[in-house]
UniProtKB/TrEMBL annotation, chains A, B:
Enzyme category, top tier: transferase
Species per Swiss-Prot/TrEMBL record: Aquilegia coerulea (Rocky mountain columbine)
InterPro entries documented for this protein: Glutathione-S-Trfase_C-like (IPR010987), Glutathione-S-Trfase_C_sf (IPR036282), Glutathione_S-Trfase (IPR040079), Glutathione_S-Trfase_N (IPR004045), GST_C_Tau (IPR045074), Omega/Tau-like (IPR045073), Thioredoxin-like_sf (IPR036249)
Identification of the protein by name: Glutathione S-transferase
A GO MF label: glutathione transferase activity
GO annotation terms (biological process): glutathione metabolic process; toxin catabolic process
Length: 230, 230
């Protein structure tokens, strides 16, 4: 697949913009990447996503696709020669979609909430949401991975991409709070999974360094970690 | 398909619980329906959706599937003998998913916000969000339906089900505000579509009467229309 056919508009700091790039890497599809300055977005971005005016956007054969998980599903359906991202078993596919929605709709807001809590109570609630969510995902990993390395089995799949894209900001949240949310004792499955995910060839060059991401977060997110979500 | 294979847990007042039922009707699949008392939910509900403890839930061959749009996609993938709910063209499929996500994540909160605004400013913002969203969907209908009766073409599809399930509460919101949000002048495409949708055999026995729904809303939703969402 020639690079000119596929273009991704994103930003190195954006977890959700990492998703289509990982998916394309897993599928072994070349693409062109356009780094957006989010303080001065490109004409192409406004034209391609007039409803949300947000990254990530994938442009495929001159047509835009928006919303990270919709893009990942589109990539899975269009580039069928690479490994499947969603399970072929339909019940397992619904289960992967369920946990992906859980991560974006519920777990992420707890991760976000740990960054800049206004009160001790807010901080405690966010940490409780974050850790209880990780406990659920730890248990889900056991069932879904069936003893293999990833939620997707032998290779990175839809749910790996959904959760894994937040690992950079999870590390930032760990640094800010001085706590380890994923560790060998509480979440041994996720601990091993996170290591494998970050060192996978489809991910390792995309995962931002925690130190750089922390600097960025401190400079840009006075309201919390999540200003760039979607 | 025997009714015993498929069971839906829902409530007559819930827009999102209507979605799997419409999808099964379009596919001509029999199912058993269990009306949940949301003040005293069943054991089966808690067991089947321990994460959210919410309707709708579909139980298929003793396995639960949760989240309305995930259930609708599952129904589309499992029961392939009926009409397709999602477009077969992959770009059109991504487009249907985009607008469905827009409706649930953005447009719905405006609909919800019109019900019990705390200030005139809040009311104006909600009405602006609701009507500008409908203007976008009016334009989208023209492109997506390609001159046919539904977003899904000749028959009701994924996006019809997503938006159409909110028509009952849209009428409640219209009654409460004394405004017509969908009408022949501002949104002629959606006006015709809403009529066709509500009189379709797969929908008409499921769409609650506005008067009954209004009574229910006044009794139950002091905080707004959306307490039962998901």
């Amino acid at each position: 697949m020639a690079a000119s056919d596929v273009k991704i508009l994103g930003a190195w700091t954006s977890p959700v913009a990492m998703r289509p790039r990982i998916a394309l890497n897993v599928k072994n599809v070349d693409y062109e990447f356009q780094e957006e300055n989010l303080d001065s977005k490109s004409e192409l971005l406004f034209k391609s996503n007039p409803v949300y005016k947000k990254i990530p956007i994938m442009i495929h054969n001159d047509k835009p696709i928006c919303e990270s998980l919709i893009i990942v599903q589109y990539i899975d359906e269009v580039f069928t020669s690479g490994p499947s991202l969603l399970p072929s078993d339909l019940y397992e596919r619904a289960t992967a979609r369920f946990w992906a929605t859980y991560i974006d709709d519920k777990w992420f807001s707890a991760l976000f909430g740990t960054a800049n809590p206004k009160t001790d109570q807010e901080k405690a609630t966010a940490i409780e949401g974050l850790t209880s969510g990780l406990a659920l995902l730890e248990e889900a990993f056991e069932k879904i991975s069936k003893g293999k390395g990833f939620f997707g089995g032998e290779t990175i799949g839809y749910l790996d991409i959904t959760l894994g894209s937040f690992l950079g900001f999870l590390r930032v949240a760990e640094t800010l709070s001085g706590m380890n949310y994923i560790d060998e004792t509480k979440t041994p499955n996720l601990h091993g999974w996170a290591k494998r995910f970050c060192s996978d060839p489809s991910v390792k060059d995309l995962m931002p360094e925690t130190k750089k991401l922390l600097e960025f977060a401190k400079m840009h997110f006075s309201g919390g970690l999540g200003a760039q979500r979607k």
